[in-house]
From TrEMBL:
It comes from Kaistia dalseonensis. The keyword Hydrolase applies. This is Diadenosine tetraphosphate (Ap4A) HIT family hydrolase. It comes from the Bacteria. Keywords: Hydrolase. Gene3D superfamilies: HIT-like. InterPro entries: HIT-like, HIT-like_sf, HIT_Hint.
Length: 135
């Protein structure tokens, strides 16, 4: 039996599907405190980015850049943070987060800083509408 790509439950519960790119599923983290995309390479059982072959690794780098550019076109921020942690959710995923001086976690990391503040429907829909042309 061939394993298929499936989302880890915490990622599925805390984010919103936007689109699929060549390698990654692109999701909006449902936390209105920060403009925040998640990229999930659609490779079954993937835990570490070092497990990607050279072609997928190159595609991931391009998709990270594309996500950063899309985020920057849709939401203002001062600094782009990119990270693949996986300490809580082992499934390989990349965080692409727009940070602004004075945001709730500035200048520290966003992970573990307070409780997630989900978007209201209107706010989320407006952000998705601004992101969509760049995705």
């Amino acid at each position: 039996m061939t394993e298929t790509f499936a989302l880890a439950a915490p990622i599925e519960n805390d984010s919103i599907f936007l689109t699929d790119w060549t390698l990654c599923q692109v999701r909006l983290m449902d936390d209105s405190r920060y403009p925040w995309l998640l990229l999930l390479p659609r490779r079954p059982g993937l835990v570490e980015w070092t497990e990607l072959d050279a072609a997928d690794l190159a595609t991931l780098a391009l998709e990270i850049r594309r996500a950063g550019n899309a985020l920057g076109a849709a939401a203002p921020f001062d600094k782009l943070n990119v990270a693949a942690l996986g300490n809580i959710v082992r499934q390989m995923h990349v965080h692409v987060v727009g940070r602004s001086v004075g945001d709730p976690a500035w200048p520290g990391p966003v992970w573990g800083h307070g409780a997630r503040l989900p978007y209201g429907t209107i706010e989320r829909d407006h952000l998705v509408a601004r992101l969509t042309p760049h995705l």
